[in-house]
Amino acid sequence: MIEASAAAAFPACARVIVVAGFRAAEIVSLFQGRPGVEVAVNPNFERGMLSSLQCGAAAVRTPRFFLALADMPLVSPDTYRLLLQAPPADAVIPKYRGKKGHPLLLTGAVARAAAAAAQGGTLRDVLAGFATLLLPVEDPHVLHDVDTDRDYRDLLGDNPAGRGALAPPEAGVAPKGPPGAAAPLEAGDAPPDAGDAPPDAGDAPPEAGDAPPEAGDAPRGS
Fold this sequence. Notes:
There is one protein chain. This protein is of the alpha/beta class. It has one domain: Spore Coat Polysaccharide Biosynthesis Protein SpsA, Chain A. Helices cover 25% and strands 15% of the residues. The chain contains seven helices and eight strands. The protein has helices at residues 2-9, 24-31, 49-57, 77-85, 108-116, 123-127, 149-156, and strands at residues 15-20, 37-41, 64-67, 91-96, 99-100, 104-107, 132-136, 185-186. The strands form two sheets. Strands 3, 4, 5, 6 and 7 form a five-stranded mixed sheet that branches. A three-stranded mixed sheet has the order 2-1-8. Strand 1 (15-20), helix 2 and strand 2 form a beta-alpha-beta unit. Helix 3 crosses helix 5. The longest helix has 9 residues, at 49-57. The model is unreliable at 159-183, 186-204 and 208-222 (pLDDT under 50).
């Protein structure tokens, strides 16, 4: 599942930063030697998702990055591209049928504010001080995360009601690996026509900017 989440972001990102907390050694082993993937271990993952954002964003090298959740493997690569093409804002958030989802496209200013946030704060607190753009998208999977056994069965197609609805975003990428890891994706160094091609432990922020952003939500619960 973590691998599928990262694969969806690569068409728009130059690098993926996976933030690992709980069972971090398994995630490090899973991505060892993978080109374009860096694993950042968050020793403070029990403090919540903001701590994973702080950990992942510290490794971001582009002006913008994506904050993506590792337990949302079906987000379309087109959604990442649409976020990159949106009018400039400190935070660009996809919206499907009136509901906000992930990934988020954030600027370095947001990352710096998150780094300075007090323990116990949330990303919502941080974003309250920044210009935010809600971008309508036709991708229901910006709302679909995997939190329960039923969610996971639906993802694999075991549930008749969900069979086929939650296929991996890319052929050959099967959902596997420890749940709850996330990775930031850098998008700035990706080719401009990559659209013709394709955090709390587990979200990873993607970097964007002049290049595609990093998928940056850190996997939750890792």
